[in-house]
Amino acid sequence: MNHQYKSKIVVFTDLDDTLIQTKRKLPEHALTTLGATDREGKALSFFTQSQKIMLDMFTQNGAHIIPITGRNTDALNRVQYKFHGFRAVSHGAVVLKDNKTVCENWLSEIESLIMDWPELLEYCNKEIDQIIKSHKLDARTRVIIDMDIPAYISVKGNIQDLEIIKQNNPLNEKFNRHENGRNHALLPPYASKKKAVEYIKKQLELNVNDLIIGIGDSLSDLDFMSSCQFSMMPVNSQIAKELVYA
Fold first, then answer.
1. What is the pTM of this model?
2. What's the Cα-to-Cα distance from 161 to each of 65, 123, 139, 170, 242, rounded to whole Å?
3. What is the structure's pLDDT at 246?
């Protein structure tokens, strides 16, 4: 064993409801700082003081913080935190090497997986739109295209309406799913946070002697967290409610 090896510390982390949250989800009496803005530049999400302390603790110890998020590139760039280097956006469909450049070898990595998915995404999105209209649901659906990559279908609405859409969508089984509260995402096979994390680990040449931490809140985050040595979650997260404190 090489005792001179300098271990890296890498934190792969989800963002929304993990490190930042909207005002209605903030704990009572929490001290906050701005976490992210909306498209108009208005405050949308916030860091609690404890979340900021945790981030500061990691960075002061030399950790590399890598966001692994469902946000697209534009939405990630509205987060009020300076990330450096790799980041995975759009549920892992896109891996960036900075805030605006897709990793070239990531494109070659997923090229064989994309194939006919752009057409299927559009077709499924139209099917969901028809379900919304025919059932008069309070929901909306759209295909997220990020950095010219058709990434996934985003469906937002109240929980009851999202369940009706799920029950009536004949194409459900073709997709992986992210479901948390009022947000659902239908994911093609290349939109995978786990695949993105494994890819970044290779690029950083991480090994068993490095410290790799995964942080997430949704059940769908467990997949990428399993690629890390240690996992963390907020106590009020979907993971905690479903698996720990159920």
1. 0.94
2. 36, 20, 7, 16, 21
3. 64
